Amino acid sequence: MAPRIIKSNVEIKASDIAFHKLLIQSCRNHSKNLFLTEYETGAQFNYEQLYNDSLSVAGALKQFGLNVGDVFMVYGFNCYEYVVALLSGLLVGGIGIPIRGIDTDYELRREIQSRDVKFLFIGSQMRDLASSVKADFEQIKRVILFDSIENDSTFDTINVMKRNENKLNESKIYDPKGNRDSIVLIMESSGTTGPAKGAMLGHYDFATTFQIYSVFFSEPDTGIGSSPLAHMSGAFQWFHAICYGRHLVSLRNTTLDNVLDAIKKHEIKRVTLSPSTMNALNKMEKHIDLSTVRVLTAGSRLPAEVAREFINKYKISQLVNCYGITEAGGSISFNTDVARNYNSVGKVIAGVQVKVVNPQTGALLGENEEGELWVKTYNAFKGYYNNSELVSSIIDSDGWIHSGDIGYYDENEELYVIDRMKDIIKQSGFGYSPVDVEEVLLQHKDVREAAVVGIPDADEGEISHAFV
């Protein structure tokens, strides 16, 4: 057949409700459902608690002066109060940035400065860092501690804010009033090259994304919240659960033993694992029967031999391989039955178009012809925060996102991703630029020049290697 654009036959209507309103309404509608079990502490929370706590903290944030359009950051590990902090800021019109608790002091400071952060929620384990950050950045109006801390003599805490008597009335929740350009989240993305960038995601677009996911994951079962909310796979785990009133088991320390123990103890039916984690599980001597568990993998390329061994060893009933990029609002395609075709990343999802292009000439390519994957979707990001000039290098004038990934489609219009053009290192499913590592190395007084490259690694998929 002639070269063509491939797309889904399924139509999904764009959401007419903003993302944060979708979340809070779901909390109200599923109030008696169990929301979260914290694996490490055993603490449990239902959706009624999430609803009330988020509105109480939102009321306090409004009193503190968090205004519509202010950027706030949540920095810490997976736990109930991380979600409360993020949701409450969105309810008053703030733009949220979720950050991983494993990110370094250097990375945190860089993000605060480049993203104009006004409010910082930070895990109580990093209290000393909170003090120094507050002293160093005049732009920050408030630093708020969360995660198992009651009171603090210096900082506000989520625990105290949850008892705020001036709870935000649901009728006063921020309303974007149909503005499709309004921003709800800034998610860190490696982009195609250079340091991490803040990809801005829209209120209505992100809500539409989770309507699309419901086509693939509709069962009311228990999932695991092992990936950080700062990563798109973690955002999928956590927000999908909230959107549909599902139960989630959170892990802050995601060792292989903890993951397997949580699955067994809590009878978890939905798990998201990176290809490197699956590879590590393949090498473990002990294993459990996962025949009732559906596994989603994303974040980096899934080697066929890893998938085959994982399915056979753990008796997996369904392994789903997802391909996506942050700039496209998350997912681009799903292979819902990897055992049928180990190499494919599946067919494009509703609302997405993909074409394969010769990167040198721009010519449209046909079946089984390798080229760069270009993507168009109404869930596309709104640009990079404070970096508008970079957007033109990844989105062309016709709205096509140049993914930087090399692939092709076959006669059944299934996608295959085989390589990447972009200068990014993918380690354990997380992408980062060599430039980020080089910048840190160059801070050392004895380093004059530094060059970092990615090299293959059996356990992590890829690791960085430095020449100094």
UniProtKB/TrEMBL annotation:
The AMP-dependent synthetase/ligase domain is annotated at: 28-385
The record's listing under Gene3D superfamilies reads:
3.30.300.30, N-terminal domain of ligase-like
The cellular location(s) given in this protein's UniProt record come to: Peroxisome
- Recall the GO molecular function terms of this protein's record: CoA-ligase activity
Q: Keywords in UniProt for this one?
A: Ligase, Peroxisome
Family, per entry: Belongs to the ATP-dependent AMP-binding enzyme family.
Q: What is this protein called?
A: Luciferin 4-monooxygenase-like protein
